[in-house]
Amino acid sequence: MKTTTRPAFAALILTLATGCHAVSTPAPAAAPRVVHAEHEHEDLAAQLVASEMAAAREGTPLPLPSAQPGQLVQPGCSAAPAQKGFYGFYANDAWAQGRVVLTFDDGPHPKFTPRVLDLLAEKKMKATFFVVGRNISRDTYPLIQRMVADGHTLGSHSYSHDVLMTKVATPADTVETIRSQHEVTTILIDIALVAKSADDFDALFRSTFEHEPATWMTATGIKKTWRSAATRHEANLKARGFDGGVRPYAVLYSRPPGGGPYVEQDGGAGIKLYDEALTKLGMMNVMWHGASGDTVPDKRSDFAFLTKNMEKYAKQGGVLLIHDYMRPDALEVSLAKIDVDPHVEVMSMEDAVRTKYACSVGGLGQKLDDRGMDAILRRGFGLPPARPASEPSFALSR
Ligand SMILES: [Zn+2]
Fold first, then answer.
1. Residue 308 contacts residue 278 (beta carbons within 8 Å)
2. How do the domains of the chain map onto residue ranges?
3. Which of 121, 84, 79, 127 is nearest to 102 (CA)?
4. Looking at the domain that runs over 9-23+34-55+65-377, which CATH code has it been given?
5. For 4-18, 166-180, 309-323, which range has the lowest pLDDT when averaged over its residues?
6. What pairs with residue 99 in β-bridges?
7. Residue 328: which H helix or E strand, with range?
8. CB neighbours of residue 140 within 10 Å
9. How far apart are the CA of 257 and the centre of ligand 1, in A?
């Protein structure tokens, strides 16, 4: 397995050239983060899997999209949102056969994610990683840096991976919960990208969240404190040479844990609240058209089941849902098949946006940007390569 290295910050910035970019249930107690020893990695994987199993619907293949090449392009950035839900990708999207977007959920994981990154590098494929905020730590922050350095796209999969976060008591509380989950994850992505060492990551974490990085924050805690954390985050970025309001990375994509309200039968009310949160976040919502099946109980270790799903949905085209912890040999064989299949082309999330919305990611990102938000929430749209700290701010005017 290739050793993960931390690229120089300048190199990271170079890769950012196109950077446009719960709950009615009791809040989970701060759980100790599991790190270091191999068996502990397995424990963490087991926890992740258990979390996914609880939301087994996430791995359930959704109805086939009505893939009709030629129907893909909707009017440009000024178009109305997608028919169902906020801007983004949904199971009923039309899609060209064989054009597949690879998405990996639930990382970064110290054991599984490096293997995924190695495979993608070997095949020269670009993917999108929907990372879980609480998985970004002193042990995994170099993986976030490597994702960006390798040209992949980062999205938020929430901080706590709470599949019930759209079921908070009141509507306003629900919207705030969803928002805090993704906002905190974007802050953690930033911290991971600017950290110079594991100790530096922890120092930034402590300074930003006023919380010990060795334990997870609670969903109720971040809902109360994310705004003040965002203010401290901005101050820390300024101290590192970022102009006011400019962030290292613009997170434009999000995916609800378990698929959230979009895959529930009674999700109408939840969808409305989730869409409201997405509007405030300025993020697209990325669902999927096919899934590897790596969360399906009793099937997730079935090599033939996994590879068959991967092959089928890659040929069909659309957004393909995979998890970092998918059975390694099945993932390797599947990617090798995709690589040599003349009828399958791996496309980036950015290309998928351009195809669906006939609009650049930057253009759509600016459209999605909520101009009512505080300065800290400005995104790094148009951040040029290797921007010297002395240049004028590229933050959006408000
Ligand atoms: Zn997930």
1. no
2. 9-23+34-55+65-377
3. 127
4. 3.20.20.370
5. 4-18
6. 345
7. helix 328-340
8. 22
9. 5
Q: How far is the CA of 131 from the centre of ligand 1 (A)?
A: 8
Question: Is 66:84 a contact under the CB 8 Å cutoff?
Answer: no
Distance 161 CA to ligand 1 centre (A): 6
Split at pLDDT 50, 70, 90, the class of 307 is: very high
**What are the φ and ψ backbone dihedral angles of 299, each rounded to 5 degrees?**
-120, -15
| Ligand 1 mean position, distance from CA 77 (Å) | 29
Give me 387's structure tokens. Answer: 């921007």
Q: From residue 167, give the alpha-carbon distance in Å to each of 88, 160, 162, 179.
A: 22, 14, 10, 14
From the CA of 112, how far away is ligand 1's center (Å)? 14
Q: Is the pTM of this model over 0.85?
A: no
pLDDT, tens only, 52-82: 433 333 433 333 333 333 333 344 565 445 4
Residue ranges with CB less than 5 Å from ion ligand 1:
105-106, 257
